[in-house]
């Protein structure tokens, strides 16, 4: 981990006028929080794992806060009082924030003071995510606006800083709780969470941070592995006037072994190169350099920007050598058929909602998925914090990334989805753990796919746009049913009757009959004009076995597809169901619902606080069981 910016450069002031009610309030959290909370907030790790600098500071911690009940405050000067205090980056609906207000609020305001003296370097202000739209001021000057609740944005605030070093940062977040045309994922539009929807997340929910950079600096890097030829693609974008004598130095290592050290000329602010590694030829030696869940080999990178013999910027990064693609009816990892054993993960925590309690909590979620025998997760209706992807990269866990849905079909909804989805792909393109992109889920936001051409065109457009932005990964246009443009056909089927499952998907079932006659959830699996063309078939949602086992705070009535009364029955039903699915040759992968209980939805393998319902080793034993019906099956 890179060190934070020296205290002399940026120092944050305590908020002295704390409301009496909040002074008396205890911020007691059960998981991961208490020992890590300070003036700069709980430890969330470096917010941008694949482009790290040493000169940075977290702005997480205690901020002044207020709701804008009548949505009438337009600029910081309009805000006359700050009755509340909030712990950033936890949303005000969460208990960890110190607010815990889950009512309907269209907009809210944040403010804090900090000390940051101007210098020769530029000061960049970053936001990991603010739901849904944000306006940001420094010392009363508008610095940046952004729309999209799941993607990052930043601003160069150098010219707005006061000379004496005393600065004021103000944020207005707008998030209409009733607007169903914005991508909102599982955030409920009703006052109380119902069915499969959960409490809303408003405002700041990922790290706010500062970094100092040279006026000419590395603004962006992007890695593209090409297994054929043992190559790593590097795209770098340089901000500022480089003149005619600038070069970018790349140092690539695997542990202590130097793999490459090259320097490339910067032309028009860009460097685009493929680095050819020495191919050992023999598979045993090749495998040492390949990334997979079983062997998550990361290649460490250092990039240095040189201008006229002077190094003006240095960043740390990492990449990996791996391929993820589809070949006929199988998913392929590093050129070999690979059975995906995934679990659906919604990324909610009881005390912090969509925001992670800490970096340790994100790491623990990756470790728990692997401990239960899964080699991947389907991040459901959430663009996850980059720190989760970092731990998935480092520890070895595959990820399907899925766009949070809007729920009404309008031109505005599609425009919003396209903009935010494009930003998400741009942010996460270089993570080796990501193997599949999913723009739509279960026809949410496009409910008339079988009959309305515009809805079909939206799915097909997002599919092709995603393939244009990333030619290296598989794309599922609409996961669950009503497939059209897709590289993988995902099926959602929550039938708990094992005989029904065998009859639908057993060895005697021909794929064409499956798609002509079967309608899990009452939906056709493929749209007219899009027959099965040999793509892999995956059971991408199944299970949903609800077992509560203990009372949970705030949960009055549990919800699930099948309810079980005791732990031993729960374990036996899981084992029988998983054994059936693992040994169904038709499926090239599966995704069990779900990783952990999420509010009223009690169908997790873990409780909401990540306590196992049954021993992890018992889950792992059946989840990772070898196939018996496929010769050489994984």
Automatic annotation (TrEMBL):
GO molecular function: hydrolase activity, hydrolyzing O-glycosyl compounds
Pfam families to which the protein is assigned, alphabetical: Glyco_hydro_2_C, Glyco_hydro_2_N2
Alphabetized SUPFAM superfamilies for the sequence: (Trans)glycosidases, beta-Galactosidase/glucuronidase domain, Galactose-binding domain-like
The entry's keywords: Hydrolase
Entry superkingdom: Bacteria
Residue stretches making up the Beta-mannosidase-like galactose-binding domain: 106-184
GO terms, biological process: carbohydrate metabolic process
Coiled-coil ranges per UniProt: none
Domain Glycoside hydrolase family 2 catalytic: 330-624
Statement: the UniProt record of this protein carries the keyword Hydrolase: yes
Keyword Ribosomal protein annotated: no
UniProt-recorded name of the protein: Glycoside hydrolase family 2
The species this protein was found in: Ramlibacter ginsenosidimutans
